[in-house]
Every structure is written in C-alpha cells, then in structure tokens.
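Dear support,

We are seeing what looks like truncated structure output for some complexes. This example has two components. We would appreciate it if you could run it in full and send us the complete token output so we can diff it against ours.
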Amino acid sequence: SNEYLGDKECYACHKDIKKLYLGNLHGKIFTNNPGTSLEKKGCEACHGAGSAHKDGADRADKGESVPLAVEFPLKKGPEFTLENNKLCLTCHEKGSQAHWKGSQHEMADVSCVDCHTIHTEEKIDGTDACTGCHEQKRAQMQRSSHIPLREGKVTCSSCHNPHGSMGPTLLRQASTNENCYSCHAEKRGPLIWEHAPVRENCGNCHNPHGSNLNSLLVMRPPYLCESCHAMSFHPSTIYDGNTLAARDKHQVGKACLNCHPMVHGSNHPSGARNSR
Amino acid sequence: AAGGFDGSVTIGAGATDLDEKSHKKGEYDGVKDDASRFIGDVNLSLENDGDYIDLKAEDIGLDDRSFSIKLGNYGSYQLHMEYSELTHLLGEGITPFIGAGGDVLALPPGFSQHTTTSQMVVDPQWTTQSIDLETQRKKASIAYSREIGSNYSFKLGYSREIKEGTQSIGGMLGASGQFTSASILPEPIDYRTNDITAGITYNGEKGMVSIAYLLSTFENKNEALLWENPFAAPGGAAFPTDAQISLAPDNKYQRLSLSATRDLTMTTRLSLTAEYGKMEQDEELLPYTVNTLIAPLRALPRDSAEAEIDVTHVSLNLTSRPTNKVSINARYRYYDTVNKTDRTLFMRVTNDTGSQSDIANGAFYTLPFDYSKNSLDVDAVYRITGATRIKAGLGHELTDRDYRSAEQTKENRYKLGLSSRLSSVLTAMVDYTRAEKRIDGGYDNESLYNAYHSYSSASGMYNYSATGNFDIHPDLRQLDLSERDRDSYSVKINLFPMDTTAVSLSYRYRNDDYNNSELGWQEDRLNSYTVDVTSSPSKNATFYAYYTNDLGEKELAGHSFTSAGPLGTKFTQAEDDTRRWWSDQNDKTDTIGIGTSLAFLRGQFTVDADYIHAKSTTEIELRVASALPSPVDMPDLETKRDTVNLTGRYKLRKDLVLGLGYGYEKYESDDWATDGLNPASGDVDNILLLTGSAPDYEAHLVKLFMTIKM
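Here is the complete output from our reference environment:
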C-alpha cells in the first residue's frame, strides 16, 4: 500500500526542490500554518502518498529496474489539461479563482501551469504571463498612447482576472466603465448632462490597450465626433487638408475639444453642449 | 527561504542624456530632461515560525516609486500597507494665463481683449510663461485579511489617493458655432479618492459564499475654473470679461456584492454574482453664467445636482463536464442602470455669452440616460480525441436604452472553433465568430429631439422638413447604436521544431460591417499577424523575437449641410445626396521585439538585451460626392520609437552583484494638430493654444548599480 511519509523523506533526495518549495507560498503555508488536512501533507498534498515512490527509488538505487510510482509530474499535452488543473482546483477554487470553471480560459483548455510555475520563489508577472498568447495586445501596449503597462505600473491583471470573472472579457468589475472608474473616479459622476455613449461604454471611443492616437482614441477627432454628431454646420463639415492649411479650429489643437471639452459629460447648468 | 532574514537591496545611480527636453520620454517616470537619479530597490523578508515581514521598495529615485510592507502569519492573517506614486507627463505649454494650477486664471495686467490671437501677441502687455502639464498620483493603502478556521476569512481595506497637477482644457466663448473663440486653459487637478472595502467569505467543500461592500468617495478641490477672457467677439454678441467652466464634481459610489458558487454534482458547478450599486453626485450647481451683464438671471431649477444612478448586476453561470469529452457553459448576465436624476429644463446661457435662453429658444432638458443589458451565452466544447477539440457557441444580447435614437438593440452571436495537436511538433487553432446586431423598434430621432429641446408650441417640435426642426441627419446611425455584422476569425499555428525552440504564427481578422448605415461608420476592419520565436538552446541562453503587423481600416460617411440662407436650405441640403463625403482612416503599425538573456562563467556573468521597434502611421483619406469641392487628404500622423536596453550583471561574491546598464531610445512623431503651432506666434486666429515643443527626443541612459543579497 502507498502511505504518506512526510516532507522530510522528500527533502532527503530533492534538495533543490526543497529550497524553492520552502521559499514559495505553498511551502510557507504548508509547513507553518496548514489550514486543512490536505495542506498538512506538505509535498504529498499535490504529489500523493510517497511510500511507493520511495520504495521504487530505493530499489532503483540497488540496481533494480522499477517504475517510480508518483502522481506527479504533470502530464504534458492539452488532452491532460483537465486532469492537471483538477489537482490545483482542489484548493484553488475560491476567492479570486472561484469563477474559474466556465471562464474563457478554462473553456479554452488553458492549464494552470501554462502561466504558473509551482516550484519557484518568483512571483508571476501579471503582464508577461498574458502576452505569450495575446500577441496583439503585446504590440498594442508598445504604441505611443498607452497606459503604463510596459512600464510595469499596471498589469493586465489590474483590470482582468485571468482566473475567471462575472464581468465581460474577464474584467474584474461588472462592466467596462466600472473597471475604468477604479482609477478614473472623476469620470464616475453621474452628471446632470450625461453623454450617453460615454456612460454606457468607455470603449466606444477609447482602446485601453494602446493606440496610435492621443488619449487612447480609436479615431482622430473631428472624425470621431462626427461619427455621431452629423448636424448642420460645423459638425457635418468635411475637414481635409485644405481646411487644415487654413488652421481650422476644428482640427488643430484639441480639435472639437477646443470648444466642447466636457466630452465625458457636464455638471454646469449651461453645459448642454458639453462646452461648460 | 525557509526562515530568517532574506532578500536583496539594490542601490546605484543612473544618468539620462536627452537631446532635448521631452515629456514623452518621462511620461510615466518623470525623467524628461538631462538628469541623474538614485537607483534603489529593496526586497527583504524576515520570517520566524510562520510569522513574516516583507519589505519592498521599487524605483525609489523616480517619480513612480512604490513601497510595500506586508506582515502576518502564513495561512492565518496579513496586514498589507502600501504607498505608491505615479507621474503622468502630458506635455509642456506656453500660455499668457497667470495662476496655472489654481482655479482662477488671470491675464497679464493691462492686457486688452482682441478678436484674434495674431492681434494678442502684438499687444504691448503680451507675456507668456511655460507650464508643465503633468499629474502625480500618490496612493496609500492598508488592508487586513484573516483566515478564521478553515472555512471563513474576512478582509478590510482602506486606500486614499491624491492626484495633483495640471492638464489642459478648452474654454469657449461665443453663442454660435460660427462666432466662437476658445482658450486652451491650464486645468488644476487636485483630487482625493478614498475607498473602503470590507468582505467576508465562507468556503465549504462544495462551494463558497462571499459578501463584500465598497464605499468610494471622490473629492475635487476645484469645483470650477474661472478665467479672464482674452478674446473680443469676432461677431455676434459681446464677449464677457470672465468666463467659467465646471470641473469634475465630487461623487460617491457604494456597492454591495454577493458572490456564491455551488458544486451541484461532481462535474457541475453553479456560480452567482449579485451586486447593487449606487452612484451619487450632489455638487452645488454653478450659476448659469458669471457674466454680470446678463441679468437678472432666472433661478436654477434646483440648488444642487441631485444626480443618482443605481446599478444592478446579476450573473449566473452554469458549467458542466458531463463526460471527459464534453464541456458546457451557460452564462446569463443582467446589468441594469437606473438614472434617478430628474429630467430638468435648464435655461442655459451659452458659453457666458449672449442672453439667457428661454422655453422657445435654446433651453434644453437634461436627459437622464440609462440602459440595461440582458445576455445569454452558451458554449460547448467536444474533445473528438485527446488532442483535437471543437467548440461552438451561441449568444444573444438585448440592450434597452432610454433617451437614445435606438431604444433597443439585439445581438446574436455564433462561435465555432477547432484546435488540434496535429503532431508532437505542431498544434493549430482556428476560431470564427459572427455577431449580428440589429435595431429593434426603428431608429427614431424624433423622440430624442422632442425630449431634449424645449418649445413653446407644437410648431417647435421635431419635423424633418423645410421647417428645419431637426438636428441629426436622419440617415446617420450613431456609432454605438448602428446595426452591424461582425465577422472575426483567428488562426494560430505553434511549431516546436526542437525541444528548445517554439515558433508561433498567428493571424487575426475582424470586420465590422455597418451595412444599414447610410451615414456614420461604414466599416471597421482589422488585420493583424504575428510571428513569434522563442528559444532556449541551453540553460545559459534564451532568445525571443516577434513581429506584429496591424492594419486597422475605418470608413466614415458624412453629409455636409447648413441652414445658412433661406428657410428650407437645411432640409434641401440634407436631402441632397451629392453633399456626401467619406473619410478613410488607416492605422498601420509595425512592432518588433528582439531580446536575449545570456549567462557566462557558470552564471557568474549575465547579460540581458532587448530591442523594441514600434512604428505607426495613420492615414486619413477623404472623398466627396459631386456638390462638394475636391478634398485634400490629411497629412499622415506618425510615431516611431526605437528602444535598446542592455544590462550586464557580474556576481562578484555570493552576496554581491555589480551591474552596468545602457539604454537608448529615440522617438519621432508627426501630428498635424499641434506640430509647429505656437500660441506665442498667433498661429490660429480664434484658438489660443497651449501647445509647446514637439515630444521628439533621443535619449541615452547609463546606470551603475550593485545588488546586495542578504
């Protein structure tokens, strides 16, 4: 029968792993303050009872040709993702991982160890771990207009929960705007003059992952504003190289925002046209 | 480490040499000019019998420094205190306004109002000052979490962020679009945001329940910005001496959240999130105008904003794996906002200019916009073999809106995908999604017009005719409301020619076809492909290289019309299809990344090298129908950045590493909106700009540091 032996038996052979294991959160909790009976098993919490493995190793040392029975290492290949993840989910299906099942990553057969290295003291980088698969986002964050992702001041996981969420596109909050308000509380309002597309989705005008255009915009004003404001006179005028040569006030400087700066809405009693 | 004292301290010095001062260089670290700086990073840990203290400090010598202290007992409790700063350099500018950073801006003493900026700059009293447009965030937070037994835990947290600085904002004078002038003003930023969070969680064998509360308050020290107006009226009504614009008002947000999961069977899990939030804003309202010549003013309809939006969110997720081959996920999401702010008629004074509006002329109702979304998505995966899987999905989303031209839109979504490990060295994935968004109930400008405009008789109501009682062209479909067919697919191939090398080829395509919009966005297309190579030929060497090419193409259709001339001109021109125009915006971006990490002398000497090239070009091409004069395409908008970073580390002793780094960065940009335009030269007649030097730069960075390991 296979029996649990305790960590010390493992350390006897796996000296390199011992150092890494005791340096990471698994080792620290399991050895210092195990909260469950499983955590009390230390290495064997994940690897399973070790006596058969030890017996095999002892016999191998004596020259016998025997398999080293152990539940780990993880099996390689996407067909084993479910099986491999199941082990981690034994403990990690609560807190910020509570919504893993059914998440976009889970349904895409992403494996826990695609992003996480178990036997390491180093913490995962909340951006690098993502850009390995999300190449287009990696390129977008190099664009001129960007949030400080590439500077490391925010990470993908500042906005997204890769382990699953109840918001759209794995966002930590329930909506795109609520996510944006986390850092931009001044945009939260509400205001007496609301700008409806702004209230509904910041992403109507901004691309948070990076843009070639200032302020993370998806289109350059005045054309962005003209996408919705086709009204007589200046909102419907075609602005081109000729008008630019004449330094038209709707193109230079802040373009439409020279005169209508309150594009996120206004709280001024005379702010009907977002100019106050 | 297993216990005791552990960690590292890095100290050193760095120097930056810039060919010219540039806010873009120091956008997020504050290094915008030639400067030397202290390098300091700390990462220390003290442990004893499961108790620990972790100290961490990063970028101590920069304006984006951060400090963190964690203390607690593993698996039991943690107290986390953190302080961080983040700078954001926005630009430099030249302005005649005195008092930047405050909420009152004055002109130089004796300065007279002028009709154009070219007249201003020859005024004997014209003087300017350079100002930095930048903000700085300083955030302190404290959080305490504790495990109670093996089933319960709770968290308490508090954070306070101060954001200070100056950014730019437009301030307009003039009552009609034709006769307006604007000053770009230094806007004071002095924000305080306080967040309090509390939560308790129960974790059982078959699920969890969590309840959380958030209180977030935002305070702006500046309610409004008052400025002395430099412009005389180019026509129409006289311009006032002073003008005032509102700034972001104080607000408060509260949210109560319930999150729960339950394993119904060994293979089926139900998840629920239910949230109720309340956004409130009750700032005292500013007067209609600060123009003392407009009197007596009608009273405001109320003293304060009394604005409130309530948010309800419910998500249900049911996921099951009835067999090892099949996964099914069904997700229902309900997100509802209820705007409780009263719809109110405000007798506005347009831009502190002219007379106060009345019911028959120019007064508008506020529109308490709100919306709700109901969506249901079902996805299924079937594993044909261990290495091959197909997936399919269906989704439906219903969006209801108040005070929009389309009050209901429906979207149907269809998804298909196939992925396979074709061999031990080759995997491939293909995904296709189609989404069809349709307006339900018609596109209706009339209701919105009548809800927004005030009118004293029926003759003032919406009427798309020669009376001109319409504003938005009826053929326009606004960006977020328009009917749209979205087709997107992606292909990805991973090759593993050797155990140590991976090659990835990926292609993404998305096309949004707004086929039922005569005006507005017509198409929005994206083509993106990436080649990615990573290799680790030995434990002492890793390499990576990637290239991404993005091409975004957007087509916008417009219709030029005016109401100048006899009654009916507006309608006649709106009906005239020869007044159409089209704008094509093409965003082309190339991004290259190359890097390596090498170790020599059994790891005693390491070198890291990275190179990034990012180049973008935005072309805006214009076309017109026969009634409009031939257009000239806009100049290209361009940005180009090359960055090189080299860092060498030599392990002098087991506990001491010496490091030397060199960085090079060159940034070039062309922007027709600001390049070469200077407020001091009166370049733009009716806009007093706040532009400054171009952001282009060439920078060299050298750093010398040592890391002491404990």
